[in-house]
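Task card 7
Instruction: Convert sequence to structure tokens.
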Amino acid sequence: MSALIFYVVRALWYLMSLLPMKILYFFSDLLFYLIYYIVGYRRKVVRRNLTNSFPEKSPKEIERLEKRFYHSLCDYFMETMKLYGMTEEQARKRIQFTGLEEVEKAIARGQSVVAYMAHTINWEYATLIPLWIKDKNAQVGHIYHPLENKHFDDFFKKVRGQYNSENISMAATLRRIVELSKQGRQFIIGFIADQVPTWEAINHWLTFFNQETAVFTGTEKIARRTHSAVFFLKFTREKRGRYTAHFVPMCDDAAQLPELELTNMYYRLLEESIKETPHLWLWTHNRWKRTRQGQIEREKRREEGRRLLEQRERERQQKEKSNV
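Output:
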């Protein structure tokens, strides 16, 4: 059944991708009314995120921003459909990459490049970077989280990799980087680093949009280990369907910065970028579901569990001794 659903979805996706963007944007406008007014897709999460992040805004301003975000989200769905089978000529019209001179200088120095990214619409277009990179020896790639359904996972890898941006799973990131290094190849890899870390991965907190926020530090660790040049890839929308992605230099060698400075810098740049165009960030993501208090309570429960297990083990040993 899952295979049948996949083939139906892929066929519909392909047919939609053949339509002109004007028609797809018409469907986007219809989709907005469906998911915002009828389905109410994650509206409580979005409203809470926006209200907490912009306490200076009135309820009316928050509502207007919320609607602009949902319009952008629907555009993202349609633009991503169009990405399937998009020609090189069409791709070059959709997005321009600027600041590549500094990226190419780093590659010329023999360095690799780590690009901090975020869920800023339309982040999927970052997979088109190979069209603008002159040095074809440098492997362009992006880190992704594999989907459980193999059919859909293979399909999305095909869509994102059609212009030679390599799909690298999170679990295989370091292994793939080591392989490239052994081959004497530099890499330009994008890390979408604004996700919520698992409880086990939390080792750093900072203030992001007025809220204490647990953050990933894995991108920084990889950049430091590989002495990479680091950039922040800032997305802006010039008009509907037209984007610019600018490589903002963060440092020439990650290993030269104090520990955690890169992570802190990334979140400062990200917050500044979001404030310029807040409707383009993915507010449906439950970004602040992890709390410091939640972490403390979780550690207490784990400690209590360990003590209970130790107590039971002692009782078991005492019982065995008494039976001897």
